[in-house]
């Protein structure tokens, strides 16, 4: 349960407050402060008996008959000496310009605070309550009620005289009254009544539940939530009543309005005051507890609860125990709860103290979160409501959060939060870095340092780099990769790395990082040297990016040893920067690398490296024989004699065969295939490629005494040489493997050839006939002849300009046109006429298709 306490030196309640309540994790809904200044002075000599609240000021009545007007800070603005005895009640109209006061000696006063009008009357009994009309300022509403043993309504007549009428009597003293609009609610010993001032009718009677309680010790609390909703608190019972209009059909002799109890529930404690708070209720409760030591009841601190009313019960939203001065001697009737509707302010009035409760705002919410060390929630709340908070700054909350995380040892989280909290404030960043340095946690904040906007002093970054260099080479290397080189003094860090390399010269991490630092410093030569030493993959990227080809002319062997594939691609892509001649010279002592380079060059362009083709023959023979034969076939620049010599020396049969055939010595090539390779299929393939009858004759002669070779020839020779030539030469009695199958295959191949020829003949005849028909259809079509056509012989228009003049035109199928007289006369041997143009061009003569005469 939260407490509303204000520590004051020498206060009486501190000496009697022996219990300590556990701190609640639930945030209170209200905040509290004592009304001080003039109120403190008043209550040191007097005791508060009643109070009423207006939006502009407060009115406080005392046991010594004084009425004080106070501002909201508790300062005294006016003082009225009304009576020598206790002021029972003060009432204000809505304008705050008229006030009614009643006292224990029967005095009643109603007067204007800023006008001369007033009403004075002294009754023969104590007047407990008074209520002026809410609109007393209006001339038609000059009314007020007072209550002692009976409830009197005072009205001013048109002659400015006051007349009174009894609204109710006979049920004991009137204890409480509240006036809202046209409705007056009051409580006596028997219950609560509501009177409609317009219709002059009493519309309800709500009886008291617990009649065992003395009404003077446990008075009824009344509160209008709005113009038709009355809240009644009496003893431990709370009722919410709604005034409703009665339907016309139900009127009869009944009042035009009736009251319905919409909610009713019991509380644990006795109610001392009520006030609305949106759809909830604020309840001031009187508390009595039993001492564990003496087992006697004593007055405990009063409670202010916020409850959510339900139809038959309620839910407690919050509950605060209030340490008011002198609570040990107070009774239930000594407490009052007044409220200001406009600002949701609640005043807890007791004889020796006035405490103000108000709804907590975002600043108060943040205060509570900070008190509970819920910094992240406080920071979030401040960011959401940054336009509404007045006492807090997001930055201050954030810094407190960072400090809290550091105190808890959550350094990484604290450093991460700095990004959001410190933002672009370079000074605060530097301050926090030094704080992390003091606790030895520079590594924690390093990943989150700003690298662009803002940029901190170079010393900050250098300090962190030195920290990593002393204890974490990998972390140091990571920062060098991630941080831009202009954040720190590069030369200082380079020197520091070199100093460490003196102790550990082979440390690859430091060497690589030093190379990166050299790159930032544009010292590419040193960087390249380190990368090559480390055989690092970034060496080629570095060369390309910074155009370091002039620096690698003497390092080609190193590059090839590191990654020959990438090195060759790079060298070939940049021939204009490093010539082929230079590369070959550099690789002279490493022929295997020289071969890799020249081979890739040959693949790209067969002619660029022609000067080295003779050299490549030996290189292929030594390091890459599978690619020798393709090279010999594709190259037109290699010397064949030299190649033949090398291949014969190394006994490369296939390569020698190719070279012999290329040099025109096909018989020697065939002989080598037969004698060295003993491969009849290869020999047959070679003979097919050369397509030389003498080779076939040599092949047959060589194979005639070798049955396996004869079988191979029989299977493959059929389409190139007449098989009869071979069969006639086979000696009788020679056993030839698979002879029958070979002969069958020869016959099948022959039949297949005959079928193919016949099929081709049929296709040829069908196509010829189809094309002939197409040509005939085309030639049978008419040909348009008009004025634009000319005679191909005399080049004048075919048709005469005078349509009446007779003419004769000859049109050939080739679309050439002539005047008949322009064509030569047909001879006796060949009466048919032909187009002179097509005949001259050997296109085939076209016979005349049309002769036009007129």
Automatic annotation (TrEMBL):
Region annotated Disordered, chain positions: 1-33
Q: Which PROSITE patterns match?
A: CHCR, ZF_RING_2
Q: Keyword Transport: yes or no? A: yes
Keyword set for this entry? Cytoplasmic vesicle, Endosome, Golgi apparatus, Lysosome, Metal-binding, Protein transport, Transport, Zinc, Zinc-finger
**PANTHER family reported for this sequence:** VACUOLAR PROTEIN SORTING VPS41, VACUOLAR PROTEIN SORTING-ASSOCIATED PROTEIN 41 HOMOLOG
**What is the role of the protein in this entry?**
Plays a role in vesicle-mediated protein trafficking to lysosomal compartments including the endocytic membrane transport pathways.
Name of protein: Vacuolar protein sorting-associated protein 41 homolog
Q: Organism source for this protein?
A: Vicugna pacos (Alpaca)
Originating gene: VPS41
